[in-house]
Amino acid sequence: MSWQAYVDSHLIATGQVAEAAIIGLQGGVWATSKNFTLSTEEQKAIVDGFTNPDQIQASGVRLAGQKYFTLSVVGRTIQAKKAADGAVIVKTKQAILVAVYRAPVQAPEATPIVEKLADYLITAGY
């Protein structure tokens, strides 16, 4: 399956995720939903957020030019919020899944979808 199919079929198609991307831990966007562009600086900040959680908690995270406040960094998952919308960012062995949800969807609806895909990718070696 292509990386784009994971974004389209496993995240966007659920109706719980509005925008999504898969980025590599070593850099680069592997797949993204339409009109969701993560700059090189945004990608780096996301990757660095897992090695330096204090920084991302203090400054928040930017996704496609929009600033989100970091609510938590726990293990492999970063939770962020922007007004009624939010983001779930989950790290696998080689990649990071970035998913944005829009109200009325809330974190308890979107998070399990992103984490389930992350679990699958981890078992597949990614």
TrEMBL record:
The keyword Cytoplasm applies. SUPFAM superfamilies: Profilin (actin-binding protein). One of its GO terms (molecular function) is actin monomer binding. Keywords: Actin-binding, Cytoplasm, Cytoskeleton. One of its GO terms (cellular component) is cell cortex. InterPro entries: PFN (IPR048278), PFN_euk (IPR005455), PFN_sf (IPR036140), Profilin_CS (IPR027310). It is found in: Cytoplasm, Cytoskeleton. Transmembrane segments: none annotated. Occurs in many kinds of cells as a complex with monomeric actin in a 1:1 ratio. Belongs to the profilin family. Binds to actin and affects the structure of the cytoskeleton. At high concentrations, profilin prevents the polymerization of actin, whereas it enhances it at low concentrations. This is Profilin.
